[in-house]
Amino acid sequence: MATAKTATSASAKPANDHVSASEIENDIERIREDIAALAGSLKKYGAGKSDEYKERASSAGQDLTRMSQDALNDLTTELKGYERALTSEVRRHPLQALGIAAGVGFLVAALVRR
Predict the structure, then answer these.
(1) Which end of the chain has fewer CB atoms < 10 Å from its terminal CB, N or C?
(2) Is 73 left (phi over 0), alpha (psi -120 to 50) or beta?
(3) Which residues of 75-104 are buried (b: 16+ CB within 10 A; e: fewer)?
(4) What are 14-39's pLDDT values in tens digits?
């Protein structure tokens, strides 16, 4: 308040230390206008930042989707290669494959019984 009084008295009447009620009301009104302008500026700033963060999140989501799809495609390709290799080995050694399958089935049955 002391700075407001000094600023008002310096601009209006340097020799007079008394401040009228209308001067105080004018100062309060000017402060209200400044606060309203500041609130408007903060609102605009927040809206701009909100849009910026939405764009960043959308971009990150698209990047993540693309990376996930690429990883899924790579995994699918790799699994198809393993499937082809397994099919080829089973065709080359059918009795051995049958023995391995029977052994694995026996182990699974033994584990499930317990």
Answers:
(1) C
(2) alpha
(3) eeeeeeeeeeeeeeeeeeeeeeeeeeeeee
(4) 555 777 888 999 999 999 999 999 99
